[in-house]
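2024-03-11 09:14:02 INFO receiving multi-entity request
2024-03-11 09:14:02 INFO entity count = four
2024-03-11 09:14:03 INFO echoing inputs for audit
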Amino acid sequence: MKQKQRIIWGLALASTVMLTASACSSSTADGTSSADAADGYEIALSMSYSGNDWQGEAKNLVLAAAQTQPLKDKIAAVDTFVSGTDAQAQISQIQQMIAKAYDAIVIYPISPTALNNVIKQGCDAGIQMFTYDASVTEPCAHNVTFDQAEAGKVTAEYLADLMNNTGNVVLITGVAGTSVDEARTTAAEAVFKERGIEVLDTCAGDWAQGPAGECMSRFLAAFDNIDGVWAQVGGVAIPDAFDAAGREYVPMIAESANEYRLRLQDPEYLAKGLVGGSYGAPPFQGAAALSMAVQALEGEEFPSTIDIGFEWVPQADLKMCATGAIEELEAGCNTFPADLVSTGFMADWWSPEWTPNISLSTLLNVEE
Amino acid sequence: MNDAIPVLEMRGVRKTYGITQALKGISIQLKPGRVYGLVGENGAGKSTLVKSMCGAVKPDEGELIVAGRPVTINSPQQARELGISTVFQELSLIPDLTLAENVQLQRQSGWIRGRRPRITYATEVAATWGLTGVNVDTRIDALSLRDQQLAEILCALNRPHRVLVLDEPTSALLPADVEWLHAVVRRVVAEGSTVLLITHMLEEIERFCDEIYVQRNGAIVDHVDRADFDRGQVIEQMIGRSLESAFPPIPPIPSESEVLLEVSSLSTRGLLQDASFTIKAGEILGVAALDGQGQNDLFEALSGDLRSTDGSVRLRGLPMRLRSPAEALRPGGGRAGIALVPAERKTHGAILDLPIRKNVSLPILRRLGGAFGLRDSKETEAVSTLLEAVQVDRLKIDDPVRSLSGGNQQKVVFAKALAGDADVLLLFDPTRGVDVGTKYEIYKLIAGYARAGKGILIYSTEIPELVNICHRVLVCYHGRLVAERHGAELNEHSLMTAAIGVIK
Amino acid sequence: MTTTAPVGEKNLRDKTSRLHKPQRRGLLDLGGARGAVTAVWIVLVLLYIFILIFRPGLAQLSSVQTIVVLAAVTAVAGLGQGAVIFTGGIDLSIPWIMSSSAIVFASIAQGEDGNLIVALLAAVVIGLLLGLANGVGVTRFGIHPVVMTLAVSAILEGGALGWTGGLVTGSPPPIVALFMRGDAGSFPMVIPALLLLAVLVSFVYRQTRYGRELQAVGLNPTASRLAGVHSKTIITSVYAISGVTAALAGIMLSGLAGQSYLGMGDPYLLTSVAVVALGGASFAGGRGHFLGTLGGALLLSALITVLMTFQLPEAIRTIAQGSVILIAVIAAKVGVRPGKRKNSDGIKSFRRSREKAIL
Amino acid sequence: MRALYRPGLRLLESGLAVPLLFVLVLMTIYVSASPNALDPSQLKYTVINASLTLALAAAGLAIVVLIGGLDLSSAGVIAVTNALLTVNYGGSVANQFLWIGIAILVGILSGLFNGLIVHVFQLEPVVVTLGTSFILGGFALLILPKPAGLTPVEGFSPIAFMTSDIAGVPIGLLVLLTITAGWLLMRRSRFGSQLMAVGSDKEAASNSGVRVGLVSIGGFGVAGGLYGLAGIAITSQTSGGDPNLGSSYLLGAFAAVVVGGLKLGGGRGSIIGAILGAVAVTIVINVLFVLGFASFWSTIARGVLLLLALGVQSAITVLLLRRRRGQSITVGGLS
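2024-03-11 09:21:47 INFO inference complete, emitting structure
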C-alpha cells in the first residue's frame, strides 16, 4: 500500500515538473521567435558553453550585431544553441543544423579537431562554416581568431619592461590542456627566458577568478621573491590576494575585465602601486565571424584563418566611458562605470569595424 | 561398516571469534553410507562446525581429513571439489538469478549455454529428485521461503556429494516435505554417500539418523548410536543440566491485576489476521508458532515497526498510535510505552560498533539533557543502573558492544529495552544463541519485570522455554491466533500439536 | 558486582581489554574514526615539519594562513559531504548547490554590504530546500542517493544557465571578501570561524541528542529505528545540512573570487569527496568526523602548495593528489583493523537492513 | 497465452522495458518533429555516433554497478586512452592496430588495478576509483599537454573506420551490437552468472562456490576495457585528442546506467539497458533541439529523465511484478 502510494506521488511529482517545464519552455524557446518574419539569411550559432561572462558577452554581441545595421536587413534570424562541454553533443548539434539547412553556421568550437568531420559535411552541403576565437584544423572552415602567441609575446615583453628585465615572475595560466593556453604561455615563457627573467612557477587558473585567486594566494604563500605576475585571468582576484597577504603589489598582466581596468585607474589602487596592462580575447570575434559569414554568403572569398587582432591596453591607454555611447566608444574609451555592467564584464567588446553601431546599452539590452 | 575409512574426519578443530570460543577442539568421524545427526542448543557452535567443514570459515587449529588425506579447505569452492556439499541455514542461493541459473551455478562442472537447454536441464534435475511443478525460470527472490529451501536442497543434491551437510533444512518445510527429505536422505546414503543433519527437532533425528553427535558450548559432549538414543538424556547433555532446574519460578499474577495491553482484531498486510488478546499487569504471555506463521508481523506491528491495516491496540485503556517504534516507545503525554527486544541481536537489537553507553541510552536521550546538551554524569548513572539490573560489568560501559560475548550482547539489548521503563515488553526469541548461564539470567530478568507489575509478550522457538516461563501461551498458525493454553493444558505436547495446525 | 559474571568470561576479560580498546570518552568523541583522524593530523604535522626543513618560506604565518583559508571552502563543503557519507550516502549535487546559491547571493547582494543579511538568508534557504529535496527523495521515495543528487544537480545546472543566461549580475558584498581574505594582512575572520565550526560540530556530535542519534543511524538505521530514533528524519537532515554547507561554501568561494559565476562549484564534486576520504570516513557509513575532514582539507591544501614550490607541472600535481587519496584510504584500512576483516555475516545482514531502512 | 505472457514479463523483469520505452517514445517525437531524422546518415551522426562514446562508457560502468560498486574512473580512462592514441597513432596499419590494442589494454589494466585495490584492501569502490581518476587524469595531461589532431593516415585507418559506415550501416551500430552480443554470450557463461551473483549477494555467492574476489576484479577489468573502447570511440569521433574531454562522460554515464534500468547496489539489469539508456540520454538532447527548446533545458531534461526512469521502473516492479509468492513446488516420490 505504502509503496504504491509512494509511486503515485512520485509520478505526480514528476509529471508536475514536466508540465512546468513545458509551460516555461514556450516562453523561453529561443531562436524561433524572430525566424519567420523578414527575408534574409538564416544563421545558426553553435557554442560549446555559455556559462561565463566572456561567452555570454560574445553571444549577446552576435545577437546585437544581427539586430543592428549593417547586418539587420540581411539576416532573418540567428538561432543560438549551446551544447555544453561534451564534444559529441556539439557534433550532433551541428549535424542537425546542417539538416535544417541554415545558410551559415557560426561556431565556438570545443576542440580544434573534434568538429572537423561535421564541418566538412557542412561545407559540402554549401553552408558557410565560421568559427571564432578557438580554431579548427579543417581547411574548409574559416577561423576568425587572433594570434594567441603574439598576445603572449606582447604582454610578456611589456611586463619584462616594467620589471626592468630582472627578477622572478609567476604565471597564472588558463585551463591546462587547451591550445589557447599552450600558445600564450609558451610565447610568454620564451620572452621571459630571452629577457633573463626567471619563471618561478606556473599554476592553472582555469580562466576564472576563483582558481586564479587561489593560485596567487598559494604563490604568495610559497614564494617571497615574486617581482611580476603574468596572468591570463585574475585581474580582480590577484590584487585581492596581495591585499590579503599584506604584500606589496608587483607589476601584473591580466585580462580585459572591466573591474580590473577600473582598478588600474583607481587612485586608491594606484596609491598602493598597482601597475600593469590588460589584454584578452576580444568578445567581438563572434560578431566579426557573423559579419564575415554574411559577406561570404554575398560572394566574398575568405581565407581559412582570419586574424582580426586583439586589444592590448597598457595602463596609460586606459580611458573611462561615461555611458558607453557610440561616439564615446569611437573616441577610444575602453573602461565602463561599475554601476553599468556586471563584475565579470569584459571591457574589450567594441570594435569600430565589426560592431560599429552597437552601444553599451544596445549590448546590455539585447533580446534573445 | 564401522571399519570403513571415514569419508570425513575432524581432529581437534578450534575456532575463536574475538573472545568467544565457538569450537573447542572438535573431533568427529563421518563414515560412508551413514546418516549422522548433530544436535545442540542454539549457540552451541553447530553452525560454526558446519562452516568450518565446508570452507566458509577457516579453523584456527586442528586437522581435516577427507578420505584419509589431510586437507585444508580455504573456500567453499574447495570444499565442493572435495565432495562436501552443504545446505546452509541462511539460504545461499542468489536472489537475483533464476532457479535454473542457480542450479547451473552450483554445479561443479560443465556449463550449459542458452536459456532453454538450461531450463530443460534444471527441470530434469528437479524431476530426478521428485520435485515437480517447478517453474525453474523464476527468480529466487520471487519464490516462497519453502520453495527457496527446497531449491537450496535441490542444488546441493545436484553437486557431487560424498558428504551432504544439511544445516537446519526443515525450518521452512511442510510435514509432507519432511517425508520427501527423508526419502532423499535414504537415497543418498544408499548411493554410498554420507549425510550430516543438523537440526533441533529431535523427532527428525530419531527418524533420519544412524549416529548422533551432541554438541554443547563448542565441544562434542556425546556420540551415541541410534539404538542407544534417549531423548531425555540427550536434552540434558545439550543443555548441561536437567530441565527442571533450568527455569526460575514464575511469579504469580496478582488477583486484582488490571488489564495492561488490549489488542483487538489486529491485522497486517502480510500474514497476521484478526489477532485479539489482552495482557494483565504482571503477566508473562507466550506466543508459540513454527517459523513464519505471522508471529513476526504481530511483534513488528505492536512495536510500531510495521503498520497494521486493521484493529486497535490500547495500553492502560488508552489507544496507541503505532506508526513508528518511536511512537510505541513514547506514546506521548509522558506515558510509558511498548519496548521490543528484536530477534536479530546483531543487526536489529544492538549497534555493535557503538559503546554500551551509547546503545543503552539511545531510547532515553531525551531524559539525559542538561543546559549543555547531554549530561555525562546523568547518563553514566542511568546506564550503570541498567547494566547492574541486567548484570553486565558496569566498568565496560565505554566498550563497544561487539567486544562482548553473545550473551552479554543480548543483556545489553535488554538493558536498552528496559531503559524506557516500558509498560509492555515484547521479547522475540530472546534466548537465541545465548549460553545456558545467561539464559537463566534472562529468565530471571523476565520474571523480575513481571513481578514489578509490567506485562510481557514473549515468542520463542523453544517450546519448553514457553511452557516453563509463561503464565499463558497463545498459538499462532497461518496468521491467526488459533489456540490458547494455560494451567494444566500448558505443556509441550499440546503447544506443538496446535502449532502444526492440529487442534482438537 | 563483577561476581555475577559467568565464570567462563572472567578469565577472558583481560584478553578483551587488549583486543578492543575501549572508546573512553574524553573531551572529544571521534567514535570509530579516532585512529584515522589522529593519523591525518599526525601526517599534517609531519608535513609541516617537512615544510619547516625544506621550504621554510612556507612555514611563516601568512603562508599558513593562506593554506588554511583556501582549505576552508573545501572543509565546509566537506562537512556536508561527510555528514551524508556518514549515513552511507553520497551527495553529487554539492557543486551546483554551491554555484546556484552563490549566484543568488551575488544577485541579491549587488555588491552592497547592506544587502548581506537578505542575500545570505536567501542563499542558505535555497541550499536548505535543495538539500531537503535530496533527503526527501532518498528517504521517502527510496531513490538511491547517487540518482537523486545527480538529478537535482542536473536540474540546477540547467536552471542556473537558463536563469542567468550565462551572465551573472551582481557581486558578493565586500564584507564577504574581507571575511575570507582579511584586510592588508590582518587576520581573515574565516579562520576563527572555521575553528568555531569545528568546536560546534564536535559539540553537536558528542554532546547532543542529534549527534548521538546520528552516530547510531550511521552505523545501523534499522536498530536505531527500533530504539525509537526517527532514522528517516535524521537521514533527511544530513542532506539538508549538506545543502546548507554547500550554500555557505559557495558564498565563501564567491568572497574569495570576488564574483559568482556558473560552474564555480565544479571542482568541489571530487574534492569534497576526497577530503572526507582523507579524513578517514567509511563510505559504508557510521565512521567519520568533521575534524578528520578538516584535517583532510588542510592536508590537501598544504600538499598542493608544497608541490607548487617544487615547480611540478599540473599533471604531476593531479597524480600526486590521487595517490595521496589512495594511500590514505589504504593506510586507514590497514591501520584501523590490522589484518582483520569485519565479520562478513555482519556486513551482509547489515547491508540488508540498511537497504530496508532506506527504501 | 502463457507463451506470450512470459517474454513480456521477462522483459519487464530484466529492467529493459524502461529504456526501450524511453528510446521509442523519444525517437517517435524526434522523427515526427524532424522527418529526415530517419535518413541513414542523419541517424548515424545524430543518434549512433553521438551516443557511441557515452554508450561504451555506460556499458563499462554498468558492469561495475552490476557487481555492486560505483566507478568514478571512467573519465580518467577515456582521457588517458584518448591521449595515448593521439600522440602515438599513425604509421602502418599494423602500428595503428597495435596502439588500439594498447589503448584497450591500458583500460583493462586500470580496471584490474581498481579491482585489485578494492578487493585486497576491502575498500569501497567509490573511494578507490576517485583516487585513480585523479591519477589517470594527471597521466592524460602528462601524455598530451594540449589538444591535438591525429596524424593523418594514408589509406585505411581503423580509428576513422569506427565512426564511418559500410553500405549505410554505421560501424558504431555494429560495435554496439557486438558489445550487446558479447554481453549476451557473457551473461550465458559461467562468468556472467557469477558476476550477477556477486552483485546480488556477495556472501551467498561465496557460499555458492563463486570466487568473489576474482570475479569482481575481472568485472572491473572488463569495465576498464570498455572505457578504453570509449576512449577509442571519442578519438575516432573527434579525430584528435583533448585531455579535458573525458570529464563530461562521468555523470552522463551514471545517468545512462540509471535510465537503463540497472539497480545501483548490484545484481539487476544489463549492459544492453545501459547502452539504450545512453541512447535515450543522447536523443533527449536532439528532441529538445528540434522542438526548439533553449539549450539549458537539455541538462534539466537529463535530471527529470533520471527521476522519471526510476519512477516508471519502480511502478513496474510494484504494480506488475509483485506477485503473491506461491508455493509452487510439489514434492513427490523419488523415481
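2024-03-11 09:21:48 INFO post-check: The longest strand of chain D covers residues 148-149.
2024-03-11 09:21:48 INFO post-check: Chain D touches chain A through 62 residues (CB under 8 Å).
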